[in-house]
Amino acid sequence: MTELPDRRLLLVHAHPDDESINNGATMARYAAEGAHVTLVTCTLGERGEVIPPELGHLGGAALGGHRLGELKEAMRALGVEDFRLLGGAGRYCDSGMMGLPDNDDPGCFWQADVDQAAGLLAEVILEIRPQVLVTYDDNGGYGHPDHIQAHRVAMRAVELAAEQGWDVPKVYWNRVPRSVAEQAFARLDGDLPGLPFEKAGVLDDVPGVVDDGQVTTAIDGTAYAAAKAAAMRAHVTQITVAEPYFVLSNELAQPLFTTEYYELVRGERPEEREGDLFAGTGEAS
Ligand SMILES: [Zn+2]
User: What does the alpha-carbon distance between residue 48 and residue 168 come to, in Å, rounded to a whole number?
Assistant: First the structure.
């Protein structure tokens, strides 16, 4: 096996596009700084709503295949070479929005056995031996079944890997400080007349918003803003970008954050907000 770089970061996401929206600047920054960045995506987002009318015919496996292509393009934009589908492409499919009959599809990620899926992820953890793992909070940031399941699988995989020889020192959940989100939406309201979007979203549309004090870590990705925007644009079926804003299929404008925020949930909580996910691991930049 080839020797991996000293710093290794693993991100666990539900669908292609979540990584670029939540962590695009972080991924680009650490990849550029020579860290090994690994993305594990749990489904191909086969039940995502498609924005461009000319691609509206895509659905199911055809949409999944298309989104895999978008993911590859996004990873090129971020400079990330190691990205994988949990259990291989098509192992788990998108579960659709919470409460839909789609949630009962036996092949969907929501129906996956958590220990089994976590076992597949634990194999990746044991291979990569990351110091840092990033995923969502227990509500999946905003309640989508695949995001909740990604959280459960990631947290269980950390336990399984610890039993098998690699105890991930630091685990983070994606966050946005409430004050940052409020300021960004206030700016958005002023900017809206000049944007190609008709309506502004609201703070509740942003996953992972918490009180500022809960946020332990801020990664300044300002220098990677263009890479993040390019990665988001690569997800053509899902996102329309007009920097520093974007819309999803609901057409409600949201801020595009180039500083990305986290809450440390495994590892020693820092007294002051950190600026490096690897702080305290002996591999800080
Ligand atoms: Zn998602």
Answer: 32
